[in-house]
Amino acid sequence: MPLGARPFMSAPVHSPILRALLIALVGAATLPLAACDGARDPEPGDADKDPAITGALADPIMVDPQMAGDEGAALSANSGAINIPPDLKTPEAVAAALQDAARIAGGPLAKAPPPTKGEAAGEAAITAARVAGRSGMVAANCAAGISYSNVWAAKLPADLPVFPRGAVQEAAGSDAKGCALRVVHFVTPVTTGDVMNFYYTMARRAGFTIEYRQDGADYVMAGRKAGRAWKAFARARDDGLSEVDLVTSGA
Fold it and tell me: Highest taxon of the source (predicted)?
């Protein structure tokens, strides 16, 4: 467990994707036989009935400002607003982030194809939970080994990093045997289109399959390769930032 990490079950959760993943993990861990004997798949709402889960999800978010990304971003518990220094939202800062993205990608970013249309906006979190719980991105034994720390953002796979100059707000992960998992929630001043172009370019270069769809306000891209899987959710915020949840699994 990384230094300063907390058990994931005891951590307050702000991101709807992190919340959905926690629900899916607990559902997978507590109902492993249902998926094997033909019974119904666990629904995200099943785990909500557990008092321990309900309590963890209802707690106010507490993020150490010094741990909230390399650029010192902080998240306000009362308003839910995400604040980053003004100089990180300037046109110059955006241009620098895009230049860094092209450098990391090894050249100009490829343009992602238009996304297919998916579910309504209100279904985005449920979709995340179902994907995590049913697609094999996470194993049933992963729940107990997950810890909550922004250190996990630095341990993302090299071919699927946080978007350059992105400000990490929350992260969780595990290196337990058979459960290499990273879940990172971050914000960036670049557009959702630029975010998805970056992950499209990186994933294609790394040899992943790529699926891309729009679920209401969420843009969702995912792929697989040789026992590894990844999924990125991006949405535009009213304050001009793009909010991103990135999930990777597999060694």
Answer: Bacteria
Q: Is residue 1 in a domain? A: no
Question: Has residue 213 been placed in a domain?
Answer: yes
124 in a structural domain: yes
Distance CA 129, CA 21 (A): 5
> Which residue in 248, 250, 249, 237 sits closest to 75, CA to CA?
237
CA distance readout (Å), 126 to 8, 98, 102, 146: 19, 31, 33, 20
Residue 159 parent element (H or E): none
Q: For residue 103, give its domain range.
A: 6-249
Residue listed under structure tokens 């492993």: 32
* pLDDT tens, the chain, 251 aa long: 454 444 444 445 556 666 666 555 544 443 332 222 333 333 434 333 333 333 333 333 333 333 333 333 333 322 346 667 788 889 999 999 999 999 999 999 999 999 998 764 444 444 444 444 444 566 656 666 778 888 999 999 999 999 999 999 888 888 887 778 888 999 999 999 999 999 999 999 999 999 999 988 889 999 999 989 999 999 999 989 999 999 998 86
Q: What total number of domains does the chain contain? A: 1
At 6, list the tokens.
């907390």
The Cα 165–Cα 195 span in angstroms is 12
Q: List the structure tokens of 138.
A: 């996470």
Q: What is the pTM of this model?
A: 0.70
* Contact predicate 138/181, CB 8 Å: yes
